[in-house]
Amino acid sequence: MRLVEGVVAVDDVDAFVAALADVAGDTGATVQAFDARYVVSRRHLERAVELADRAIERGENVARDRAVEILLYAAGRRQITDALELGVDEGPNRAVILVDGGDETEAAEAVRSRILDRSEPTLGDYDPDRVREFFGITDAELDAVDGDVEALVLERVALLVVEK
């Protein structure tokens, strides 16, 4: 798994998704873009990939597309429309773009050259309030884990397996 970080200016979300699909088609990689404000760590996306792949292997996936299944796990949601909040939106976006499988080197380079407007670190630059609201993290939960937001997000990602 490779993560490509940077800024993307999205004029049309459908065209942006089509451009990601083109990179995926050209390289055999799964490519999914995330709004960096929601991605707490590399481990957050690694765990989503692991659990999505396990669901697909077992025939328990919700989405037909692997990239969408990864998005569902990263969001800790079963509903695609709810999970899409973790994706990029129209306008400028600080993004983390996941590339996994296929020719990851070529796919990552294609994302850098064809998708990103500017390469810059975005991973770990999440919005704590936005993350807490999206994942429903309470003050009591934060106190129980000494303020470790990542631990609680990883728990939400893992709980999706149980909620089926």
TrEMBL record:
Pfam families in the record: CGI-121 (PF08617)
InterPro entries hit by this protein: CGI121/TPRKB (IPR013926), CGI121/TPRKB_sf (IPR036504), UCP022062 (IPR016799)
Transmembrane residue ranges: none
The family this protein is said to belong to: Belongs to the CGI121/TPRKB family.
Name by which UniProt lists this protein: KEOPS complex subunit Cgi121
Source organism of this protein record: Halobellus rubicundus
